[in-house]
Amino acid sequence: MSTWISKAVLFSLLLSGCVMPDGTGGTQASNGGAERQVLLFADINLAGPAGYCPLPDTQRLLDDASFVAFAPCNGKLGAVLAATVGSDGSAAGIALKSSTLEPYFNTEEGKAALRGEGSRDGISVHEVSDYKEAVVLRLTRVAQNKQSDSWRALMQINGRLVTLSVRPRQGMTMSTATGNRMVSRFVDAMRKANGQ
Q1: Can you give the pLDDT at residue 35?
Q2: What is the distance between the terminal CA atoms of the chain, rounded to a whole angstrom?
Q3: Contact between residue 24 and residue 55 where contact means Cβ atoms under 8 Å apart
Q4: Which sign, positive or negative, has the C-alpha torsion 168, 172, 175, 178?
């Protein structure tokens, strides 16, 4: 598999799995006004789907990427969303197509990248699809006999590789239709916020 997958995409995917603990949701966004709908990072506006706001307090710089979590703007509990933004030029040379990435993510190397460094969790990739120039993955992680579903979208904005993640809160479930709809709306919100 080419170097750009192992160095750029995989790094971003690993970070996208670094969703802040469930305790960071809800109340931190309780003032929920429009001023928290968009968070500027470098040259990218971070925006969640309708009803979700970025949580500036969760923003972290992780090596060459920046991470931020999102929560319902009204302060209620909801799905756990996150965005990871790569460094300037991190999307250079990357062909974001499901036909390119699906075979890779069904290999042991690809699953190891999704699993994260040092993790032995089981990973099943159920679907890799294209959505508005983004690649969307639907996957399941099994750890300590507990199964959790999640969705990730890889996209390019202003030359940066951006990874979006959606998952239910710990101990909760999310239907495939709901997860697909939420990750698609997350992609749409990011595109709209950045004039694409």
Answers
A1: 40
A2: 30
A3: yes
A4: negative
